[in-house]
What does this fold into?
Amino acid sequence: MVELNPDKAHYIVATVIIVKEGKYLITKRADWEKAFPSKWTVPGGKLAKKDYLERKPDTNAGQWYNILETLAEREVFEETALKIKNIKYLANLTFIRPDGIPTIVISLYADYESGQVVLPIDLTDFKWVSLDELKNYDLIDGIYEEIEMLDKHLKGEKIGIWQKE
It folds into this structure.
């Protein structure tokens, strides 16, 4: 068995800003979560080996493509029961969780495709909100700026990389 180098071991997470009729879906984390308890965020979660090992490789060399999209679809469905489409990249960040595990987050966005929101036990509420309405929620730091970037992009404005104003 291959030993993991703790200096190179990270969680890989995909989060998804879901767009439906000009509004964005936010969800509230349970108060017992290790990272960001009781904060509002967007759906997402950690990459698992099943996200690629349970499907046939895309190349003869045993490689898989579009794993972030697979992860995004799985996590959005697990956390909200929604189906999404047109998944695109927005930004990325890295942080150290309270338990010391380095985490790389790839922020994506997608269009709502179908379904009604049904939350799991670790999420306590959800809202479809406009950019202006987001200011009324206790969001994980950086989420507002991500949605602001996306809002500008959807309005045809040029966006660069994430930055706090």
